[in-house]
Amino acid sequence: GLNAFLVSMALVPYDENLVPGLSKLHTSSAEFEFADHRLRLAQDWSGLGVAGVIWDAAVVLCMYLELSPVNLKGRTAIELGAGTGLVGIVATLLGGNVTITDRKPALELLRDNVKENIPSDLQGAVQVSELTWGEGLEHYPSGGYDLILGADIIYLEETFPALLRTLEHLSSMESELLLSCRIRYERDKRFLRLLESLFSVQEVHYNEQRDIHIYRAVRLKGKTEL
């Protein structure tokens, strides 16, 4: 099935001459093939740290978007904590109308990657926008997105309440939330429990090779207030 195919897909995102492990994060760019496009994304570990490199959760989420029944054509999507923008770029190439967001320091790298990897005829379908969770949410339409995407965004416990508020603001009862993450710590599970106060959450994919889970969440009926 899909899972076996995802595991066996021969992705070569990193220069294989490098020592495996963290060194892959220090390369200045990473290459991928998604949605019939060859992508080359700039990374900036020294300048941006975790926001400036591509994590496995993003790669697995892109594989999932490409191969699963998730339909992006003509749908509005927003990516939170986008970092290099890989997920948002792939979502755009798959036909979505996508807003790619992160905090201010990451935006320059994000914009460059979008410009380099999105063909000119699709540039109108994507925008890069500043979003710090829980702040300035009025700049984003309430319940305005069909699909909300996040790869490896649940790692700082102090951001959880603001992240949950943000997810609540962006989603309508019809929205679909896809979160891709490695469950590293007890706090990751705590966030999922927090999410379950507002959303019905189910695991839809697990990539064993990379130890990445993808959760799909939809708003619980009748829960409108935190």
TrEMBL record:
Enumerate the catalysed reactions: L-lysyl-[protein] + 3 S-adenosyl-L-methionine = N(6),N(6),N(6)-trimethyl-L-lysyl-[protein] + 3 S-adenosyl-L-homocysteine + 3 H(+)
Q: Using the UniProt record, give the first listed, main subcellular location.
A: cytoplasm
Report the locations given in the UniProt record: Cytoplasm
* InterPro entries recorded: Methyltransf_16 (IPR019410), SAM-dependent_MTases_sf (IPR029063)
What Pfam family does this protein match (any one)?
Methyltransf_16
Q: Per the record, GO CC terms? A: cytosol; protein-containing complex
Q: Which GO annotations describe the biological process of this protein?
A: methylation
Q: Which UniProt keywords apply?
A: Cytoplasm, Methyltransferase, S-adenosyl-L-methionine, Transferase
Give the molecular function GO annotations.
methyltransferase activity
**Annotated signal peptide:** none
Family, similarity comment = Belongs to the methyltransferase superfamily. METTL21 family.
UniProt-recorded name of the protein: Protein N-lysine methyltransferase METTL21A
Species name: Electrophorus voltai
- What taxonomic lineage is listed for the species of origin? Eukaryota, Metazoa, Chordata, Craniata, Vertebrata
